[in-house]
Amino acid sequence: MWADVELPVWFEVGTFIALTVLLLADLALVARRPHEPSVREASIWVTFYIALALVFGLVLLAVTNGDFATQFYAGWLTEYSLSVDNLFVFVIIMARFKVPRKLQQEVLMVGIIIALVLRGIFILLGAAVIERFTWVFYIFGAFLVYTAVNLVRNHGEDEDYEENALIRRLKKVLPMTADFHGNRIRVEKGGKKLWTPMIVVFLALGTTDLLFALDSIPAIFGLTREAFIVFTANVFALMGLRQLYFLLGGLLKRLVYLSYGLAVILAFIGVKLVLEAVHENSLPFINGGEPIEAVPEIPIWLSLAVILGVLVIATVASLLKTRGQLAPAEGTGIDPEGQPTGEPGEHSASLEAENRAARARAED
């Protein structure tokens, strides 16, 4: 099932350099002009990153073969769909720490970079374990099926965010200001150097994403064993997440069947992993430690078709189910209190219209 062709070293190095330059340029752009992007701006950037991922898959096809390209597309779609589900918690984190809207782009960008570094470490460890102990696929598969069952059982429950031990500890030991000071993480007040809440928000997003990676990383290792493809699929999935956060806004609430779709995908990959583990079995108490070649393998093209099909069905069914429900208009989003916000001046214009109407009634 797995491709025998090796990825050229020059291609891997060149890809890492290009992605690093792109991420740094994106971060510099956000830091230079903190603002809340409009729906049009967010749409352009999301389209750009999706197109970039599709082009990268074609480059993989040209440089190697169809197996690697298909593995990348399947992995990217899986990670991207799981990342969309994670946006619910990102909204809650922003609300919990009352992050101003104009700073949320930079917060998300830095949080995503921290998440990529942590995921990179996690991926390297996972690849090393899989290389030595193929039986770990039994554990990965069972965990993904368990996660899928929990997604279905907890469907409809409100998302929540609990600060992890690191965040709770930091808030206790770091001398910190009560308010944000722009995008700065340290300021001087009264001759003392103080941290701002920005540092805690950065780490909250990064470490929370790492917890999400506990199911997404095993899932993608069920689609490819190439650590390079696993990492690049994660990079492309997370790169457009910042703009997607502003683009979807209140529309996230309309994706009512997304968790069911993700549950089907995770369960499918979990079963695929178990079948793969049985096919390459090395556990002495199963078939005397010999592989069971009669057990079928699920080809990568079928995995890609299932993932894509489930996502399309879940999205279309969600939009049909919530048809007629109001979504935020263009330029709106979710403020730190979770309420819709509009373009600058929109609220004041609405108040002015109400005042004019009130004056007209008074004159009558």
Summed up:
The protein is built from twelve helices and four strands.
What this model shows, in words?
Helix content is 67%, strand content 3%. The protein is mainly α and 364 residues long. The strands form 2 sheets. A two-stranded antiparallel sheet has the order 1-2. Strands 3-4 form a two-stranded antiparallel sheet. It is built from 12 helices and 4 strands; from the N terminus they run H-H-H-H-H-H-E-E-H-H-H-H-H-E-E-H. The C terminus is likely disordered. A hairpin with a 2-residue loop joins strand 1 and strand 2. The N and C termini lie far apart (80 Å).
Task: Please describe the topology of this protein.
Elements lengths: L8 H24 L6 H25 L2 H31 L7 H29 L3 H18 L11 H9 L12 E4 L2 E4 L1 H25 L5 H13 L1 H8 L9 H22 L20 H22 L11 E2 L5 E2 L4 H18 L1
Antiparallel strand pairs: 1-2, 3-4
